[in-house]
């Protein structure tokens, strides 16, 4: 990242604001939970006291702000996430997520019906970078892929 942190307002600082952005407020916010949300409470704390910056509203960034049900305890937050992931409900519905990410709802009309479509740049099987001759366009596409990832191959 060039030896510096991102702009404070764009950094992960609050579970609530990140959830609201990804689930409601910003349809281009396509984040998903990383494995750390289920096993690593330390990723939620600024144990080294890095100066992460100050947001436009004056909030100084430090530890990630957790939801009230976590009682400001990263260990409790991770434990409850893991319990939810291992719950009967998730076990009964996990196939739906697999269909979206790896299965038939990844492309075509099923993807449209499931509101699971992305910019064509993110579909690796649809984008042949070797055929793009303009270096600026190629660099832009690679930037998108580097920052946002690609849709995995369908299984």
UniProtKB/TrEMBL annotation:
Where in the numbering of this chain does the BEACH domain appear? 1-155
Q: Name the InterPro entries on file.
A: BEACH_dom, BEACH_dom_sf, BEACH_domain_protein
Annotated GO biological process = antigen processing and presentation
Q: What is a single Pfam family found in this protein's UniProt entry? A: Beach
User: What keywords are annotated for this sequence in UniProt?
Assistant: Repeat, WD repeat
Q: Which PANTHER family match?
A: BLUE CHEESE, WD REPEAT- AND FYVE DOMAIN-CONTAINING PROTEIN 4
- This protein is called WDFY4 protein
- The organism of origin for this protein: Chloroceryle aenea
Q: Which gene encodes it?
A: Wdfy4_1
């Amino acid at each position: 990242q060039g030896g510096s942190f991102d702009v404070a307002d764009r950094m992960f600082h609050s579970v609530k604001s990140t959830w609201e952005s990804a689930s409601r407020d910003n349809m281009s916010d396509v984040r998903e939970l990383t494995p750390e949300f289920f096993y690593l409470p330390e990723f939620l704390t600024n144990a080294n006291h890095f100066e992460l910056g100050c947001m436009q509203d004056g909030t100084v960034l430090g530890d990630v702000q957790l939801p009230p049900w976590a009682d400001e305890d990263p260990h409790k937050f991770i434990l409850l996430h893991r319990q939810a992931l291992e719950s009967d409900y998730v076990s009964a519905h996990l196939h739906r997520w697999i269909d979206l990410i790896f299965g038939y709802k990844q492309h075509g009309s099923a993807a449209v019906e499931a509101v699971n479509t992305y910019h064509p740049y993110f579909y690796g099987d649809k984008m042949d970078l070797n055929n793009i001759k303009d270096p600026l366009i190629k660099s832009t596409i690679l930037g998108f892929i580097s920052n946002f990832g690609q849709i995995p191959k369908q299984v």
